[in-house]
Specification:
Strands 1, 2, 3, 4, 5, 6 and 7 form a seven-stranded mixed beta sheet that branches. The C terminus is likely disordered. The protein is α+β, with helices and mostly antiparallel strands. It is about 25% helix and about 25% strand. A hairpin with an 8-residue loop joins strand 2 and strand 3. It has five helices and nine strands; from the N terminus they run ββββαβββααααββ. About 35% of the residues are buried. It is elongated, with a radius of gyration of 20 Å.
Length: about 250
């Protein structure tokens, strides 16, 4: 170590960027913040920021989420509040940030219907935006997201879409107790398809460890009382919930 010279290597910074997804009004939405400072001042971006010298990546991700939006997540998977946080991918193109060489470690955050975010830090405003408008139809105002956040968002959405096929992660979008119909609407919102209610009910209730009856019922969706469930202990679904083709609605 005595012969090691840190100055022999060019310095670079590490940031965390957050793909925060929730289902609002039966539509998959992503959290965006409007940048209040250069570069890309005035552009919409994913929440995030620089990792401090004395903190780990998950700690930095949780801190940035709270500072810029007022929302809180935990790196221990499913918290009591139902917020799921996991590492997504690393992005390190030399020109991704005009300030200096910056490597970003992106994280995926999934949660039930979250409240309206409040801006903080270097964000001038924050909002929920339908994913469909951002990565499928294109930004409503024609202006792309700052940095390479469009690519990061697309990767995060695809991770969520593929992961709910073979894991119980879709329950992270639900309250602690939920109906099969509410869970089905999560799958429909994330996948962007329409599923057959009877086939879906048969599959999710027939998958070992996926759902557990809570013993209660609810009429919050209208109509007859519906049975309430909680997430079971299964982390891997067998058989998986295969994603239908987008142009074949009604299949499940």
């Amino acid at each position: 170590m005595s012969r090691y010279d840190p100055s022999a290597f060019p310095p670079f910074a590490v940031t965390v960027d957050l793909v925060v997804l929730t289902v609002r009004e039966h539509e998959l939405c992503a959290l965006l913040v409007r940048r209040g400072e250069p570069p890309f001042q005035g552009y919409w971006a994913l929440p995030g920021g620089f990792v401090r010298p004395d903190e780990g990546l998950a700690e930095a991700a949780s801190r940035e989420l709270a500072e810029e939006t007022g929302l809180r997540a935990h790196s221990t998977g499913q918290s009591a509040a139902g917020v799921h946080l996991e590492q997504l991918a690393t992005y390190g193109h030399p020109q991704r940030d005009p300030r200096m060489r910056v490597v970003s470690v992106a994280h995926l955050v999934l949660a039930p219907d979250l409240p309206t975010p409040r801006p903080g830090g270097d964000a001038s405003s924050a909002r929920w935006a339908p994913v469909r408008e951002l990565i499928e139809d294109g930004p409503a105002d024609g202006v792309p997201l700052a940095f390479d956040h469009g690519r990061i968002l697309g990767d995060g959405v695809e991770r969520a879409r593929s992961k709910i096929e073979y894991s119980s992660l879709a329950t992270a979008f639900c309250p602690p107790e939920f109906t099969v119909g509410e869970l089905r609407r999560v799958y429909e919102a994330v996948w962007g398809v329409v599923l057959d209610p009877r086939n879906f009910h048969r599959k999710v209730t027939g998958t070992p460890g996926f759902l557990l009856p809570s013993g209660g019922t609810t009429t919050r969706q209208g109509g007859r009382p519906a049975q309430l469930f909680t997430a079971g202990g299964a982390t891997v679904l067998n058989p998986p919930m295969l994603r239908p083709e987008p142009d074949l609605p009604g299949r499940s």
